[in-house]
Amino acid sequence: MNENNYKKGIIKYKGEFNMIDLHIHTTHSDGQMSVKEILDKAKENNIKVISFCDHNVVGAYKELEGMDLKEYNIKVITGIELNFVFNNNNLHMLGYDFDWKEMSKSKYINNKSEEEIIKDENKKLEFLKDVCKKQGIKVDDNLKINKSNELASTVIKYHMMEFKENDKILDEMLGKNREKSFARGYVHNPNTPFFIDETKGLPSVNEVADLIHSCKGKVVLAHPFEYKILDGKKYIDDIFKLGILDGIECMHTRHNLEQVEYIKDFCKKNKLMITGGSDFHRESKQRLGYGVNGTVPIDEEYLFKTF
Ligand SMILES: [Zn+2]
Ligand SMILES: [Zn+2]
């Protein structure tokens, strides 16, 4: 099994089996597509089971209540991606198949109005613009956030890339293809001048697991190998030892095949479920229904399978 063979086989796979995608963002958090647009796209791609996992909100499920899903023939499982703090790192936990109305009452669910969210992000954006100028990176003074699904760290990354003058410094910071995450590598990294501490008021790992379990959901560790600042294998061990996990996200856009196999083995040994999702935010970055950098279709094996 290698990534290139999968790449060649993509057309063949389309629609041949029941594809799933258990990690999708919408405009309710930082995704670019609406709930309806995702449903249309999932139908077009023959994806049979999906889960919207927006950051710290359950707005997608509220929206779905008023929608008729029959025409789609797609099963939607409730999902959420919750931030938590562990060893001073701001990390992600997935919750699935929970009572979203119960969840919406939690103090860890973001119930801010759109205006408040936009105001908060603009504050961060002003700070990041200042740091950019001090670092000799060109930015426009008038840059502002206008929509509640725009994050300061994403907006400024794409803004910096617009200026040719910034090419050299961005080559060093983000790589030639700009593949590195400005959020993870800089804004969430205390060792850089761009650092913004977003951990205030966030739950601990135990609190986040308790919340999901209290809403009758499954606790799934999100993309353990995505974090560049963590040793993924050690991170899995550390969280597993706490005895709070029901499963681990195994198939993911930012995991390679070796990491997928590692998690599968770990889950087999420890009787945990595996899940899979693209972590879809925008079409230029992820492919709905595919993991491993858009090369491997996610099939039913990743639908909470235990071995
Ligand atoms: Zn995440
Ligand atoms: Zn995500």
Report on the architecture of this protein.
This protein has 11 helices and 11 strands. The chain has 307 residues and is of the alpha/beta class. It folds into 2 domains: 209 residues, Metal-dependent hydrolases (TIM Barrel, Alpha-Beta Barrel); 74 residues, no CATH class. The strands form 3 sheets. Strands 4-5-6-7-8-11 form a 6-stranded mixed β-sheet. A 3-stranded parallel β-sheet has the order 1-2-3, with helices on one face. It is globular. The N terminus is likely disordered. It binds zinc ion (2 copies). One zinc ion binds next to loops.
* CATH first level of the largest domain: Alpha Beta
Low-confidence stretches: 1-15
CATH topology of the largest domain: TIM Barrel
Summed over residues and divided by their number, the pLDDT gives a mean of 92
* Radius of gyration, CA atoms, in whole angstroms: 19 Å
Number of strands: 11
The description of the largest β-sheet is: 6 strands, mixed
**Any idea what the CATH superfamily of the largest domain is called?**
Metal-dependent hydrolases
Number of structural units classed as domains:
2
Query: Order of strands across the biggest sheet?
Result: 4-5-6-7-8-11
Fraction of residues in helices? 25-40%
Which geometry do the CA atoms define? globular
> Structural class, please?
alpha/beta
Q: Give the SSE string.
A: HEHEHEEEHHHHHHEHEHEEEE
Which ligands are bound? zinc ion
CATH architecture of the largest domain: Alpha-Beta Barrel
Strand content: 15-25%
Quaternary organisation of the protein chains: single chain
Individual helix count: 11
